[in-house]
Fold this sequence. Notes:
136 residues; alpha+beta; 3-stranded antiparallel β-sheet; 4 helices
Amino acid sequence: MNGYLEDYQAGSWSRPRKIVAKVEINEQGINRRFVVTNLSGDPRGIYDGFYVARGHVPEGPIGELKHGLALDRLSSHRFVANDLRLGLHMLAYAIVVLFREATASRVPEVARAEVSTLRATLFKVGASVETSVRRV
């Protein structure tokens, strides 16, 4: 259910705004979401067409960088080292995006796959482990 309340003005707001409410009831219980906006139109179009779609663009890549490429692991004490590591993470993400675009027409699953999935299934690194008396 999407609801729409026009011309609501909180005490601290300089002008009235519209509030779009989305309420779902599913197996987990009641899920309520509210969006305060100055857009006009159909509440479902405002919520689904604008705000939900907007969340995919900045939030998706940020989550992929954090969880798929460990972008938040900048643990050096030096700024330059962290800056270099951040740049390498961004370069790796750009390579993944280019790989997705290049293979999207032939393998649609790759175009939708997240970085962690691609790392686990496609980008495995082969190595050989040599052991000696003093080291591995």
